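Exercise: predict the fold of this chain.
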Amino acid sequence: MTPEDRPSDATEPRPRPTPLDPPMVPFAVGGTIAWAVAGLVLFVFFRDWLESTGRTDWLWICLTGFLLGFPGTATMMRHDAQRRRRRTDPPQP
């Protein structure tokens, strides 16, 4: 195929799509709530089963996920604040 036979758009670079930059706090809060709900469901409804099968560590895993959600949410709050600042400040040359 000669260069004249190729479509013109094949030689022109495509414009780069803008990256997704959604707010992250709802994801962090949602994950924290999910770990809390999972832990409560396991504790209330499956505690006897967890003890009889030796799987009480699942409760500790849920507690850890819930507790790690707090610094994760704080980090995402900083991320979102910087994201808002990036969108309002003009780009530096």
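Check your answer against the key: The first helix runs from residue 8 to 11.
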